[in-house]
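Inputs:
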Amino acid sequence: MSNVRMLNPLTNLVKKNTKLWVRDLNQVFTSTSGKLTVAIKNVNLQIADQEFVAIVGPSGCGKSTLLNILAGLIKPSKGDVLLDGKTMNGISSRIGYMSQADSLLPWRTVLDNVALGLEIKGMPKAQRNSVARELIARTGLNGFEDSYPSELSGGMRKRVAIIRILALDPEILFMDEPFGALDVFTKEVLQDDILKLWQETKKTIVFVTHDLTEAITLADRVVLMTSRPSTIKSEYYIPLTRPRSALETRFEPQFVEIQKLIWNDLRTELITEKGDE
Amino acid sequence: MIFGSAKKKLTVYVWRMMITTIFLSVWELGVRVKAFDAFYISQPSEIYKDLINLFVTGEVLPHIAITMEEALLGLVIGTITGVSVGFGLGKFESVAKVLDPIIMALYGIPKLTLGPLFILWFGMGIKSKVFIALISVFFLTFFSAYSGFKNVSPALIDTVRLMGATRGQILRKIILPSCVPWLLSGLRASLGAALLGAIVGEYIAANSGLGWMVSNASGMYNTTRVFSAIVILSALMAFLNYCVTLLDKRLLKWRVLTE
């Protein structure tokens, strides 16, 4: 079974076609009492153009911190991130970031939320509204243009958050446990949305989650992270054929096999974590 | 809504009218049968006549204008400085730490006791009353702006930062709208404070304004005129409150829907 891990047909592709290159990343936080906490230790990661990578690890392992560094929100203590071979310096408009929190502006309607990024870029009102309307229609949210976020269901809010990022047409999408708080059914529907989105746009996606099933369903590659100090434990190529379906792919025999393999690996991590406390 | 149906709403309205009518009737009749002394409490019919007279002759209009001018100037200047200082201290934590006990000490001063000083410094005219009004407004606005700023969701700020927003855009698109509920409650409290400040200033030293009208009339034992001025003042206050309610409905539309 371990051959799944060894034979990674992506390895060469990633090396030839690197979109994001994380080099020797370290992150140390100083608490108010002056105590140093190593959040991330020696993380090296290469992500290819159009690749869908899922980062999985126990909660509190610094997955979000890693994503925040990649997005340019936090400056790393050591190491750097290259985007298309150039060192990233702060926030890049080529990256779209979907956070864990429900980050729709509650005082703005759906339309104005979707148009927010374009508004910040300075696009005239008529133009940005027409872009936003088209995205809203394509997502099946027609009729909700003038609704406020508080009037929408959790799943609809996530959809609005997704198209708000797509309005800016970024090359890379970062998603930080975007469906964490949703019920199973809504989650599966939205996972299908993401699969379709990738199929249509082939954007590079980095998807952080603690849900292993979700990671395998969506990604080309699953990256396992250890608990603090966080580092990459192992990487798994997911050879499941595309297009995939969030509802059916998980019952394929190969899926179950991969899941067992990764779960065994992840479990040792969870046990060590427990032993530490 | 506390009172759901239209019928219940009507009942409430009828009860309100009844209580008011009974109160005014007892007052009026009590004075007529000499159960109460009109010298001290006047009577509704006299107050009504006086009010009509005040408006027909136009005698009261300059007084309303001057009091409103003082209160509104105090309100506007106090709100602008309160919001600026509130946001500024919200942004610069270390400065806030240094100033915190000083601000609390200043806040502890009953603001109206500063009235005589302001009269001494700024004279009998409008300026001293504006200052008395704005000092109360400033603190009320300052505290709500500061709390509002502290409660802005960092996730929302990150959201627009990641979209490449400038500092000005973060302020306009996230911080200000997030603070609107706080600022509106500050504004509501400030209205009363501004009007009170203006009136108290006029009590101390003035030659016009509704506050001056009250103190002047009571000095001449003209209780009817005192009550007339009080009626006008409460009508002004109700009007200003109504304006804020309209503003509330418009700006907090997204919030009302949540309920």
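Chain B has two domains: 1-36, 42-256. Flag for discussion at group meeting.
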